[in-house]
Amino acid sequence: MISFNFAAMERDQTEELRALQDTLYxxxxxxxxxxxxxxxxxxxxxxEIERSIPGITTRMLSKELKDMELNKLVKxxxxxxxxxxIEYEPTEYCRTFGKIITEMINWGREHRRVIVxx
Length: 118
Fold this sequence. Notes:
two-stranded antiparallel ribbon; 6 helices
């Protein structure tokens, strides 16, 4: 387990709160993390991503992907085939979030274990 000695560090509470709010805004919502996880696991086409996330609607996935593209988290590539082929891939910036997702998965597993074992 990692421990932090916050007392030894000079801290800016206002800046920390702003950074936490930015992070929570980014990961907030039900679908953002599952969409990132799906794309980072190799699902590139819209229907592949949609099928990999039970319960997400076409409209919600479309909204999430547009928002993620605007926030430089996914790159959208349109191939002029017939029918038109669109692929999504994570940007390098998006990949930096991978460590956080992994830690969230680990924490969630441990939390479930603690709760179940009482």
